[in-house]
Design goal:
The structure is a homodimer of 347-residue chains. Chain A is 32% helix and 15% strand. The first copy, chain A, is α/β, with parallel strands linked by helices. Chain A has 2 domains: 113 residues, Rossmann fold (3-Layer(aba) Sandwich), CATH 3.40.50; 195 residues, Rossmann fold. In chain A, helix 1 runs parallel beside helix 6, helix 3 runs parallel beside helix 4 and helix 7 packs across helix 8. The interface between A and B is large, with 41 and 41 residues.
């Protein structure tokens, strides 16, 4: 069971931090996105990394054994990598056992559950250690009520999947905090939950409870507190729009930021669906978001321009900002455009 | 596991019919809605009913023991009632065991699983009988792709929950068939699945797979075949809109019918949310439904006018039909208005 914001008072439900990052025998950097995300956004919670001899990928952290990590304060080994099958490779099993023996819990965001590793559950039980599967949602999610909650909320939404909704939410939450604004990043996916140390895996919640999960995720807060919620999918994605809408309704955001990747032409995993325009996403988000927050507004757009030259990226963002009448920024490139986006969101 | 339309060739996955309806010790007719629905819409699949002495509710079918029902061809005992706790009452257990001993499977739509009845799973295993929990979704639902499928589809949508979406879909499917149109009712809720003998419990599917479940539910079909899909929730319901949107995208309907209950002022289970107008529901359904079927159109409206006088009901439906430029009918009252609705849907 994963910790939820509303249960912060119960420390036992939070993920055990800091972490030792496990990189397995990974040679493909694309499979280590979780480890890189943890290094970049929760670096203060990462003591070191552990890899098998065959690994060529590194997060750039000190290499250490589970026992060394434990001695330096680590509380859990985190599976920071995937592989092509999305499974817990048999070559990793000895390292997982080592971690338990050293006194670390294990945290995994894989589809396969840790308890399916032969013998691991018994070993953990004997040692009093926990096996924490991030993809397992809490058992006690209520049906959403739509009740207006106190505090302010921002949700990142998308023209598609996998184009920077988590990154944008993390960057905005960090920028808010740097301006002295009381803000929390609220995680809705595996990597985000590992970074935040709590959250709810929206994609694993039973459909009837998805909006209720989003309501739990950002509970009542002080009037000037911001929850910056990691979005999922897209209202116009034929596979995942239901998740996106439940998250929109349950988050009842005051402000949303549209994430896009200029140049992408087809929605991920679909049969030839084009990417909707920013205008279409804004219109749909306003229409549907008004249901639980009549004051919802678009704060601006966040572009992933990593495949463009800097000159092209800034020229495009300036043009689109002019056309839409909204700030358009790439949080990785930052600059004045990103400052304007932050300012627009805070209102 | 519940049968899905796409696996019709595998007869073992369909619900075992005909049924013996179990009424328990129910004295509250409101708790016997499932039994009444089965009697009204699958009467040819109901051999008889079984009730405990304390029961005062009846579906009007011949009373018989499980052994008598088995002798007349019954294949399953169906739990046709609920109770205030939504549980399988201990007073029912002996009847469930009797059914297994008589050679019947047991079908339940309760939240509590049949296997949680002490000893029932072992008894069923020993006798080679099945315990079928309708709320357990299939394990192999794929992620939706948005691929356009052959055949025609109609989806009932709502201004709220529980105002006739199942009833309307059943009535339309029956009316289509009476006109010689090849049509199937596609069930998405517990009672509907019992009636159809197959379907998918949309509310129990994990959110990421909800649209995929809707795609499975209405597979490729002959060009002039109609799937009439039972809707769930409402795109504007703060608790369930995600389910509704996944069902809309996955069903890719050519036609939708908006279900409403005139006089209802507040959405079920919410904190003071008003019922949206038909115009709002039509606009949202067109905007979002176009994503997977650009040709989507509204066929008309279906009203539950059971709380109105006949004169008031027909006057209201005539006025609203004039205002909206669409047929408005109460399928229970039928008449020329319902004929116009059927005609409009078939296009």
């Amino acid at each position: 069971m994963i910790a939820l914001a509303s249960r912060r008072s119960d420390d036992t439900l939070l993920l055990p931090q800091p972490y030792l990052l496990f990189l397995g025998d990974t040679t493909e950097p694309g499979y280590a996105k979780t480890a890189f995300g943890l290094r970049d956004w929760a670096g203060d919670k990462c003591i070191g990394e552990l890899a098998l001899p065959a690994a060529t990928v590194t997060a750039g952290l000190p290499r250490m054994t589970p026992a060394e990590a434990k001695a330096r304060g680590a509380r859990a080994l985190v599976i920071g990598v995937a592989n092509s099958g999305g499974v817990l490779s048999p070559t990793w099993h000895a390292s997982l056992v080592d971690a338990l023996e050293a006194g670390l819990d294990i945290v995994s965001g894989m589809h396969v559950r840790l308890a399916e590793v032969p013998g691991l559950a018994q070993r953990a039980a004997r040692l009093g250690r926990r096996l924490i599967d991030i993809r397992t949602p809490p058992a006690d999610i209520p049906i959403a009520t739509g009740r207006k909650r106190s505090g302010k909320r921002l949700l990142t939404v998308g023209t598609d999947c996998a184009l920077g909704k988590k990154y944008t939410a993390l960057a905005l939450a960090r920028a808010f905090a740097e301006q002295g604004v009381d803000a929390d990043f609220r995680a809705t996916g595996q990597t985000g939950i590992m970074i935040a140390g709590e959250g709810v895996p929206m994609d694993a919640v039973v459909a009837d409870f998805a909006a209720g999960a989003a309501e739990m995720l950002s509970p009542d807060a002080a009037p000037d507190h911001w929850d910056v919620v990691e979005g999922q999918g897209s209202l116009l994605h034929p596979s995942y729009a239901g998740v996106s809408l439940a998250l929109l309704h349950g988050s009842q955001p005051d402000v949303f930021v549209v994430c896009d990747q200029p140049g992408r032409t087809e929605m991920l995993g679909t049969a030839g669906y084009g990417i909707p325009s920013a205008e279409e996403v804004i219109a749909a988000t306003l229409l549907l978001g008004r249901r639980t927050n009549p004051a919802i507004r678009c704060g601006g757009l966040s572009y992933d321009t990593s495949r463009m030259s800097e000159a092209d990226a800034f020229a495009l963002m300036a043009r689109d900002s002019e056309r839409l009448g909204l700030p358009v920024a790439d949080p990785i490139r930052g600059g004045a455009a990103f400052d304007r986006l932050v300012e627009s969101c805070l209102g």
